[in-house]
Design a protein that fits this description.
Length: about 625
Amino acid sequence: MAITTYKTATQYSAIESKLKTSLGLPANFYQDVSAVLMLKALGNIVGKNRPFQKNVEDVKDILPVVLRSEYFNNWRYKYKAVCDGQECNIIIRPNSQNNYEYVQLTFDGSALAMKSGLVENDKVIIFKKKNSDVFEIHKILNTDGRFTENNDFVAINPSNTDDNTFFNAPVIEITTNEKIYPLNQILFGPPGAGKTYNAINHALAIATGQDLQELIESQKTNPANRVKAKDEFDALVKSGQIQFVTFHQSYSYEEFVEGIKPSVNGSNVEYHIEDGVFKKLCLKAVEKKSIKNFDETYEKFISDLTESGNVLQLKTIKNKKPFSVRINSNGSCVAIPKTETATEMTVTKKVIQNFMENGIVDDWKPYTTAIAKYINETYKPKTEEEDNANKNFVLIIDEINRGNISKIFGELITLIEDSKRVGKEEELKVKLTYSGVKEKEMFGVPKNLFIIGTMNSADRSIALIDTALRRRFTFIEYTADPSILKVIETIDLPKLVATMNQRIEFLLDKDHLLGHAYFIDVKSKNDLCGVFRNKIVPLLEEYFFGDYEKIRLVLGDNKSWKKKEGLLIVQEKRESKTTDLFGSGNEDFEDKTVYQINPKLSLGLYDELTTEFFTSIYTKG
């Protein structure tokens, strides 16, 4: 939506009158106002969760920084501002995506909190005052029927300014180039600390140019923003700009990079080289064109061939060897050389598309290139230029330390290093294990592909991670954050979790803390009972290898904490004497205390447990 400009004294006076009615500010506030910008919270050009995202053409005469197009994708700017009497900043983020050059207007501090509470059609009013470089921010709710202006506008007061750019003021330039976001990073911490949760935020920040801290803070301020962020993440996954995989003990190079995979063609089993998720994303990150109507073109090709008897005669491009083509039941091409011992070879739609769009031959090169040439010359598909090198692509590897890194990455462990990426001064390319045997092409990892791994530090100490992996990744710690939890039925969850974690860190280490995610969905005392029964107690049993005396210390069940018997989570079941169990003559065994989980908890009798069952963990009796 374009921004209407009001420049005359009469036009400004009408706007000022409406603002006075709706904002209720003192009359003298308007004496030195030089310009007013009104933005309505609406949908946006290319993404979600950005209500003030504007096409550069609409704001280039208002915000002069957007004219500096050489900074697109590399810079953002801050204007000083005041909102609700507190200092904050208006952030201008030039960007380009999906063939649009746009400007994203957002905020920090008190203004970000204000923005997070906006709903559709609410209006933000930004005042510029004469001889001041600090903007003032206010809002008008969509329920205010007195403010009838319904389109974005900028109104200037001619008596206070002759500045045609209206909002020209000193800005702080902040670089947002790739140095801000490491090419390879691992989010590590104890279970439930929000590593996978925040990997989505990291990926969004990298792929869209949004500010990471703004994303995180906006979601804390308004949970609805998390839903919007997840929707945007899902859209980028669907488009192929972000990919998500999980490593495990059986995960291999063949799944991650490339491998030989079988396929059934009639009664024959054929083997072909198939790209893995990482190689596919690397290739997509350097794509320079796409065919708008490939699906339509391919369907037309299949239809025509089927109607003409399902036989097409072609020759290979280089050696001019004749072969025939038919379409099988899966919609793939079957190439049949004209030889006595002909072997049918399946060329899939995907293989043809990859060659036509990217010039990459996945398999059966002589036949793939000939079929693609025929389709190009016969149907002339429409192509559009789209250089993916201008976008950032992200691969999220969940549980990265559960896989055999050396086995999975293979030779690529060298190529993912920052300085070895394609386009860098020290770039390296290699022949891959399978495709490198018959193809001359060398493979490298593009510099616009970012890798985000997550690692549970309780599974494997950070010190034991492969040295080659550690050197190539930046490690970012996420630890338990009890402060985001709430008080539930007089149970102080932040204090409960913090107390147990202090005890665990003393008895073990910080890698085994209890993450806040275990408690994030707790809404009642009974919910908390279920969490303890099904998650916390079993986890503590694993952490301490069944040493219930230490588990009791964590839960405050030790005698010196002076709990009542019914409040103990881990109770003494009995003291087992060797003579009672085995008779005389077995005095070499020591007597042993056997423990049990409180039966009311283990049997699910949650209604019989009071809130004191949990408050006594952090409150000494």
